[in-house]
Design goal:
Number of helices: 3
Distance between the termini: 17 Å
Oligomer: single chain
Mean pLDDT: 88
Order of helices and strands: HHH
Length: 73
């Protein structure tokens, strides 16, 4: 597995975790838990956005790491 693959896999995992936390927030009636899940989701989204910036940088420096390009070949 290449560095590009690992970064994209990590990004997908983070996005999935953020989505799960939002779902947990929607499914609970406990206001404290709802707030906690929303806060955690926001933190994970912040991390995800930071990683997206890194992905963009890596793809500019090493075009072979672009996932879309690899699928088209």
């Amino acid at each position: 597995m290449t560095v590009g693959d690992k970064i994209h896999q990590t990004l997908a995992s983070l996005e999935g975790a953020a989505a799960n936390l939002k779902t947990f927030a929607l499914e609970t009636n406990d206001q404290n838990a709802k707030q906690m899940f929303n806060d955690l989701s926001g933190q994970v989204e912040t991390i995800s956005n930071s990683l997206k910036g890194r992905v963009n940088y890596v793809e500019q420096q090493e075009p072979q790491y672009k996932i879309q390009q690899q699928k088209q070949q």
